[in-house]
Design brief:
Length: 360
């Protein structure tokens, strides 16, 4: 059965182009169109759709306002945002993901640019992932103080029992995709600044969005978070988020140090950055154990890289469970390959990282 799609955009030409792309794929059909958020809200109150494709900037009611109204009215709908890649656009996209949007595509400035094959492919791939996602959670976020209190309790346990403090140098490497930006907000802020390992993160996002995501994560907790730059020396208690549009690798340097290096190979698993490259790069680094974490996401990125990494290094793999994954693709692939040592809910992942790595 074809998935029913609602297209919301104030540009008549853009609506037509997006509808043509959607209707060109036998998996989907455009069930309704709306000129702005207010019109879309009335449709969503009366009808059910598999996905709503939502513009950000619209008159009367914009995309963020619509998401807020949907949350207030307890209307659960899978939303895919069409976003610009400006700095303000990146911030707005992250706001939309916090309010319940599941994923986004970078929409070109003019409708004609949407007709190129690369955009069509990306749009339909993202739409397919959102259509297969579980419906968004409408519950409010855990208060920041509660997160810190819980983290401090886990740190005390780790110190008291000495968990994670044996086995030499360790590093944490996280892979995430669809649903990842919001899921990372349930993991990264719960990690303490005293973590006895650096943390690498590959989140499938285009260039222009990862810096804003890193800034936001940095503000939410005690651990330092930054968009990784070429040559950054990895330090314990710091999180390095891969830049969009390039593959992030860890490279051995002088005096036993490890630094960030970006490479420009073609997309792998259909994504760039790709977590497989990150995991495989750790094969040559001086870490004694790698804690691999695979979060929500479409596809199988991470599986091949972890499998290759296990042939050379001691690896402990933590996979997000199906119930809390927005899309149970990447974690399921790791589990089916027999690579997962633990399969846990999203809310417990930070705890397991701390207990496996230890604190100073």
């Amino acid at each position: 059965m074809m998935k029913k799609i609602l297209v919301v955009d104030d540009s008549a030409l853009m609506r037509r182009v997006l509808c043509d792309i959607i209707n060109s794929d036998e998996r989907f059909e455009v069930a309704d169109r709306a000129n702005d958020g207010m019109e879309a809200l009335e449709l969503l109150k009366k009808n059910s759709y598999d996905v709503a494709v939502l513009d950000v900037n619209m008159p009367r009611m914009n995309g963020l306002q619509l998401l807020y109204e949907l949350r207030k009215a307890r209307i659960r709908v899978r939303v895919m945002m069409a976003s610009t890649d400006t700095k303000d656009g990146a911030r707005t996209t992250l706001d939309a993901l916090e309010l319940g949007a599941l994923d986004f595509v970078h929409k070109p400035d003019n409708a004609m640019s949407c007709r190129v094959e690369d955009f069509k492919r990306e749009f339909l791939t993202t739409l397919a992932g959102v259509a297969e996602s579980r419906l968004p959670d409408l519950e409010s976020k855990t208060p920041k103080q509660e997160v810190r209190t819980t983290t401090h309790k886990i740190v005390e346990i780790a110190r008291k029992h000495g968990t994670g403090n044996s086995g030499g140098r360790k590093i944490v490497a996280i892979a995430s995709s669809t649903g990842g930006p919001k899921s990372l907000q349930s993991v990264i802020p719960r990690l303490p600044a005293e973590l006895q390992a650096p943390v690498l993160v590959v989140q499938h996002m285009p260039k222009g969005f990862t810096a804003s995501l890193a800034d936001r994560l940095d503000c939410l907790g005690e651990i330092r978070v930054k968009e990784a730059a070429e040559g950054d020396e990895l330090q314990n208690g710091s999180v390095y988020l891969s830049m969009g549009g390039s593959h992030m690798n860890a490279r051995p340097a002088a005096a036993g140090k490890t630094v960030i290096h970006y490479s420009d190979e073609p997309s792998r698993e259909g994504v760039k950055p790709c977590a497989n490259y990150m995991y495989e790069s750790l094969m040559e680094c001086g870490y004694d154990e790698i804690i691999c974490v695979v979060l929500t996401g479409m596809g199988a990125d991470g599986t091949e890289g972890i499998k290759n990494l296990k042939s050379k290094k001691k690896v402990h793999v933590i996979a997000q469970d199906q119930e809390t994954s927005v899309v149970y693709g990447m974690p399921r692939s790791v589990a089916r390959a027999g690579l997962a040592d633990q399969i846990v809910p999203l809310e417990q992942i930070a705890q397991e990282i701390i207990l496996n790595v230890g604190v100073k």
